Amino acid sequence: AQSVAQPEDQVNVAEGNPLTVKCTYSVSGNPYLFWYVQYPNRGLQFLLKYITGDNLVKGSYGFEAEFNKSQTSFHLKKPSALVSDSALYFCAVSLTLNFNKFYFGSGTKLNVKP
Amino acid sequence: DVKVTQSSRYLVKRTGEKVFLECVQDMDHENMFWYRQDPGLGLRLIYFSYDVKMKEKGDIPEGYSVSREKKERFSLILESASTNQTSMYLCASSLMGDEKLFFGSGTQLSVL
Hints:
The structure holds 2 protein chains of 2 kinds.
Chain A: E1 3-5, E2 10-14, E3 19-21, E4 24-26, E5 32-38, E6 44-50, E7 56-58, E8 64-68, E9 73-78, E10 87-94, E11 102-104, E12 108-113
Chain B: E1 4-6, E2 10-13, E3 19-25, E4 31-38, E5 42-51, E6 54-57, E7 64-70, E8 73-78, E9 87-94, E10 102-103, E11 107-111
Parallel strand pairs in B: 2-11
Antiparallel strand pairs in B: 1-3, 3-8, 4-5, 4-9, 5-6, 7-8, 9-10, 9-11
């Protein structure tokens, strides 16, 4: 069975500090990996993707993520957190280039404190 | 900008009622999706559609059906609502072969 794990329900970080939101996956075949962010009372918004190529990908709002095939991970990072980054973050994987089926993690709530 | 609009932000229904959740997108996307979002479970796919009148079951289709009579509109139907269908329902759309999903703001459905 395909699965995506976000081991932390919540991550707390002080403004200005680096942040990491963890994601690991267990799938058969080559994964195409994504991060989405959900602000309160809003739908999910696309942040970044890994399809192929450089393992370090950069996305919106200064976020980046590193694809690590040996550890089957795709952790989301940002060098300096902002209070406005506080939101719910979802990792997702697609197994096909049709991108018509995604498996989502359970979500991680990021709290950035001033 | 792509806009995915869900007709209701909050909905309260009684057990046994037939419930319609509507979703409209304005960017001529071929793919449309219905997910439900539950705390600790993330998003789970109920149904998706890749063309008018075409649909495929997702991971949790039981108790739901869908309708896509026009390209821009994708409806989720709860034939007989039950309390375990209380959830946040999210609609999404995408271009065929494109990896980026565009989501609506969600409908919080409570079944009493």
